[in-house]
Amino acid sequence: MDRKPPFRRKTAISYKTEEKTVMRGYDLSELAEAGYSFYDAMFVLFQNRIPTENEEKMLKYEMGVFLEHSMSPSAVGSIGVSAGRPNLPVCVAAAVSTFGGVHGPGAAHGYMLNKYLERGKKEGKTVAEMAKILVDEYMDAKRPVMGMGQPQHIDSDPRAEPIHLKQEELELEGVYLEFQRAIEKYFHAQRKRQGRSYVGVNVVGSGNTALMEIGFSPNAGWCIGSVVRGFSCAAHALFNMKKGRAWGASRNEPMVQMIDLSMIKYIGPEDRVVPKQEEQQEYARKQKEEGEYKQWVI
Amino acid sequence: MGYLDKEKTDELNKIKRDRKIGNLGSPKNPFDYYEREYGTVPRDTKRAPFQWVSEVAYKNVHRIVTRGYDTTELMEEGYGVIEVLFVDYQARIPTVEEGQMLNYVMILALEDGLSAPAAISRIVARSKTFLTQACGASIMAFGHAYGAYSAFGNRLDGYLDRVDKGEFSREAAAELLVKENLHDEALGVSSLMLKDPAAKRMVARAEKLGVAGKYIAFTKEIVKAAQDLSTEPVDLDMLGATGAVMMDLGFTPEATWAILAVTRSFAAGAHYIEEVEREESNRLGQQLTPKEDYDGPADRPVPPLADREKFAKSAICRTPEEWKARFEEMKKVRGSGFSIVEEIEDPSKKSGIKKVGKL
User: I need a labelling partner for B123 at 20 to 30 A (CA). Which of A80, A251, B306, B316 fits?
Assistant: First the structure.
């Protein structure tokens, strides 16, 4: 049996021999035998260290609370893919891949915090001053402040503040929590001054702050947050695969299905005649001249 | 929008009927193409409107609830990912020992060096993508050979069902299973872990924690039967140990598949990060494929388009004999797909490709 890896790489993460699998120097089997938790293993994987007990507890809370979020882009993506009945991993892959610049943008939030902290250090400004600058710059540029607002949990994400509180309870308050709290304080004040509605902190704002505080890089934090959601999205896909109808369009179901034809609302160009090949050149030239098509270009 | 009104529909259809569109007006069609409607199907008011139906979870403005438990409350009470996995997939809180066992399994499943999931993650990373794309891709590396937990588990269930029906004893079932699947990648017994004690230690841990059940017992019988039948040394491998333990913890083969693929994806994220840190991105057209690795047809001139008829070779087979001859010929064309046969089934209930292989 060929046991060569698909390609060679110098790596500081792990090696595997016929005798053992070693991650950051620790034999995985020994790590499990010694009674460490899966959360501990995350610190070893991404940070090359065994965490303190409270750091481990924080990650446990964070990952657990983020795992399930019912109908978010990730679960919907997973369910949508499952309609064609591919293998289950495909549904999960789709779910994890939904995390981007808007849905759970953990890395973006982390990079934002790091950028402004770095700038504050260079410019000799306090964390509170940098929070004000950050909020002002984002609001002036009409950019959403990362970590604030959630389209479904309009009064503030039910997980968000409890994460902050847990971080405080575990005495893991550092520069990130101070910065995030200052951002939130100034953000709320600004919106109030502008006569705008209250927008609470979201789970990225609080959760990613905690992840950064316990030492994870923006991308490592993003990985933990988005991949842990994959667990629940697999359950959603599996429920639909085992107990739902494939395709999601059956007319025999008592409820209109996800992609029933009546669910389509079309707002594009009106029905029109397809030009014959011999008409193509003139037709196309005219279409370009008139330029009406441009409103539909995406 | 709804359907286009009758006057406009008739007008448009008349124009098309007069102009004629390819074969669409052919009387061989079981319909009159030029009588068809335009526009979208109106909203269906006779049936209940569409909603996302779920047994797994719901949320409202103020809470997220899985299987009846508020997820924030679960965390405040000290539970974590391990317990929520039991809640999500089995609608129950695990015993302490079950939680400890799943924790153990997930640590072992986290990392596997530069095997397929890490390799795919790194390849995707080199295209300068989001990390999440690479993590997603790594999950797709789990199939019915690598990380074949659904195939393994469903096979166990299939034979154990027959034991339950009194068809044969568990020992005989294990012997038959091995006889029928000795060389299958999803057997759970192989030469992979002859020097690595991790698989056996996992089973020993399950027994020590008191969570071992019928799947571990059956897997042990399978190991014994495989060792009797195999001409080379074999033993329990990680697939067999992990799959059997997960099923004794109450997870279905599909749940096992998903949980362990996602677990590995965390490490795939670390591989993405390291690849970005240590290697350069790839550009389109950058990478070369050495000619010495090529064993296809020798270099040849492209025939002039005007000579197409002279060079072209039709694939149309008029008789089953011609079809068979061409099929056999095409097997020699690597990459054409004629050498592979698969039974692709609806994996809704039980996933696993029954027979996949090379002809």
Answer: A80
